[in-house]
Every structure is written in C-alpha cells, then in structure tokens.
Design goal:
Order of helices and strands: EHEHEHEHEHEHEHHHEEEEEEEHHHEH
Shape: globular
Bound molecules: nicotinamide-adenine-dinucleotide
Strand content: 15-25%
Strand order of the largest sheet: 12-11-7-10-9-8-15
Helix content: 25-40%
Largest sheet: 7 strands, mixed
Length: about 350
C-alpha cells in the first residue's frame, strides 16, 4: 500500500521530532508539506528535512491535495481550530498533547473528526516508548501481581518557547505541559480504567517572575479498579530532561528511566555538542542519550498512526484519550484550588482555561 502523506503544522521543537520520526519509517509514511507563519521558518524546515512544499498559512497546507494526515505541532491554543479546519478539509489529524485547552474544544474536535470520517489521533508517545511498553507487557503478563501503584514523573528546567509560560496560550503550567503525559500514562498502563478522583498540589516555586503557571506539582489519581496513579511534574529541575516510571504490584515492581537510564555516564572537561534535551551544559558529568527519538517512541508512534490511516491497526491513542486527560487536568487544577479531592465525572462548563480552576476556585 502507498505511503501515508504527512503535512506538519509548526516548524520548531516538536515539528523536528515528528519530521525525524516520519523519516525513520519510510515504508509507512513520507513528509509532503509543512506550514508555519514565521517568515522563512517553513522554508528552512522544508529544506532541512527534504519536504517539497512549505506554506506560511496552514489553511494552504490543508488545501494541498497531497496531504492526507496532518501533525499539529503548534501551541496548545491552536490545536482545536486547526483540528476542526483539518477535519473539514478531509485530512486525518495527529494532535500533540495536550489535546486542547477546554473540554468544549475536546468535544468539538472529536465531533468534527467523526462527522468528517477522519481519524483524530492523540500524540502520547509514552504509549510507544520501548521501556514503558516493556514494563506494560510484563505487568499485563502478571509479572507484578495486582498492580496497585503507578508513578510517572516528567521534569526539566522549563520550556524553551515563551508561549508555554503564558497561561493564556498554554492553559496552565507544568501540569498542562508535562502532567498530561503522566495522566495518560497511568491510565493506559492500568488498562484504561475509569478515573474516580483526583487530588493535586500545585505551586509556583521558582519561576514566579516569568509565569502565573504552576512550575511544581504532585497529582494523585484514584482509579475505579482501586489502583493509584501518581504524577510528578516540574519545570524546576536543571540538568536535562528526566522521564521515569515506577510500578508496584503485590508480586513485584519495576523501574524505568527513559533518558538517564539509557545514557552514557560521561565526564568531559571540554564539553561536546549535545547531551540531552534541555541540558544547559555538556561539561563535567553528563548523561548523553543516543537514539533519543526512538527511546521516546516517536517513530513507533507515527508508524502506528500511519498504519491506522491505512486501516492496518486500530488507534490506541485517539481524541477520546485526549478528552480523558483533559477532564483529569480540569480536576487536578480544581483540586489544587479547593484543597481537596475532586471526584469524576467533572465537566464544569464555560471554563476558559484549566488553570482558572486553581486560581479562581
Ligand atoms: N509529545 C511531546 O513530548 C511534546 C514535546 C514538545 C512539545 N509538544 C507539544 O507540541 C506543541 C508544540 O510545541 P513546541 O515545543 O514544538 O513549540 P515551539 O514553540 O517550539 O513551536 C511551535 C511552532 O508552532 C508554530 N505556529 C505558531 N502559530 C502557528 C499557526 N497559526 N500556524 C502554524 N504554525 C504555527 C510556530 O511558528 C512554531 O513553529 C505543543 O502543543 C506542545 O505541548 C509535545
């Protein structure tokens, strides 16, 4: 069957990951277009990745008949509108995390794609990260007995682009940005059980001069099957990206560290080109990663999504996944605002952005 023809909306950090991922699966997909509004960025990106068409307006990319599937790597506030426009244009959609800003947007995105008969795929790469997939395979095999606690933590020194720090554009701080991964992870790992309640403690510990968003949070999720998820999210950890899980059952446990656990413990007095995402230095002791995209699961994710477009596989991360995460994000912010557990279903209407539930409970 022919390769799935992918157009990327956005041309910076995550766009590079998606482009690298698509180029790593030439048997399933190819890059045919990119769109980005900043003058010259789309053209530079296209040149760097060998993409034939570059647009400054994503509507033009949506009119390109070659594009079958778009990958949205634009800021969070644009996810819903781009998805709805893409559905109307008959394009399948891969949307980056978090799915959107509000639950109403999540509903509208899911409806628009369903009506248009296109796929809405949710880019949660942790469902494809090889170490985490191995941990889940062992858990599903019964290696740990009944799993009662799953922890995921994602921590770094803070985002690279200004819009993440502006809650009007991002919807919230570290929980919107990083906690969405852990929420999805715990839910997926445990077999997608219903969420019963959410408790979250949030604080702005270090970056109060830059953002109204939380830069440090602990979120506890109670699932209907009795298991607990614990998600740690931080923008306050210098030294490079940290992404780890811990899984506990009555018959065993496992620990996985996606980045440092795969890295080469390295000492250099002079430094070198690149160690790991968000590491400020390569001098002294560092943990340079190799095959970074593969360890995260980006090529595996895009392979699965391309095969879903061709009807060879059924999506394991779709708009519904994103909506589950969105509801837990709402509950987490509301919990931090109210200082108590919030039970689900939790779908307050008319919320402008999740962080408002913390700041104005
Ligand atoms: N899955 C992951 O691990 C992961 C990692 C990083 C970012 N992300 C997500 O990807 C998205 C983008 O993040 P990023 O780090 O690449 O941000 P970024 O700031 O590095 O890049 C954003 C891109 O969007 C473009 N853009 C802005 N307005 C646009 C418009 N109207 N039309 C088309 N493009 C537009 C910008 O020009 C830029 O190229 C966010 O939703 C983020 O949460 C996911």
């Amino acid at each position: 069957m022919s390769k799935v023809r992918v157009g990327i909306v956005g041309s910076r950090f995550q766009a590079d990951c998606i482009a690298g991922a698509v180029k790593a699966i030439p048997e399933e997909a190819e890059l045919v277009a990119v769109a980005s509004p900043t003058t010259g960025h789309a053209a530079d990106f296209a040149k760097r990745h060998g993409i034939p068409n570059a647009y400054s307006d994503y509507h033009d990319l949506l009119r390109d008949p070659k594009v079958e599937l778009i990958s949205i790597t634009a800021p969070n506030r644009l996810h819903a509108q781009v998805t709805i426009d893409a559905a109307k244009a008959g394009k399948h959609v891969v949307c980056e995390k978090p799915l959107c800003i509000t639950l109403e947007e999540a509903d509208a995105m899911i409806d628009a794609c369903a009506k248009a008969g296109v796929l809405l795929l949710y880019a949660e790469e942790l469902f494809f990260a090889p170490k985490y997939v191995k941990a889940k395979q062992m858990a599903d095999e019964g290696a740990f007995g009944r799993v009662h606690l799953v922890k995921q933590g994602e921590k770094h020194s803070g985002p690279h682009s200004p819009w993440f720090w502006d809650v009007e554009q991002s919807g919230g701080g570290a929980v919107m940005d990083l906690g969405c991964h852990g929420i999805a992870f715990c839910w997926w790992f445990l077999g997608k059980p219903k969420v019963k309640s959410v408790y979250s403690h949030m604080a702005t510990q270090v970056h109060g001069d830059r953002t109204q968003g939380e830069d440090e949070a602990i979120t506890i999720i109670e699932f209907e099957n009795g298991a607990t998820g614990m998600v740690e999210s931080s923008w306050n950890r210098p030294g490079g990206m940290d992404d780890c899980i811990e899984v506990f059952g009555d018959k065993g446990q496992t620990y996985a560290d996606v980045l440092m656990g795969n890295a080469l413990p390295t000492y250099s007095e002079v430094g070198f080109g690149y160690a790991v995402e968000k590491a400020a230095t390569t001098k002294g002791w560092t943990y340079p990663v190799f095959e970074e995209h593969w360890n995260y699961g980006f090529p595996q994710e895009m392979r699965h999504f391309a095969r879903c477009v061709r009807g060879k596989e059924t999506p394991i991360a779709d708009g519904e996944t994103g909506r589950v995460v969105q509801e837990v994000l709402y509950a987490a912010y509301a919990s931090a605002g109210q200082g108590r557990k919030v039970t689900l279903p939790f779908r307050p209407k008319g919320v402008k952005k999740p962080i408002d539930l913390w700041k104005h409970p």
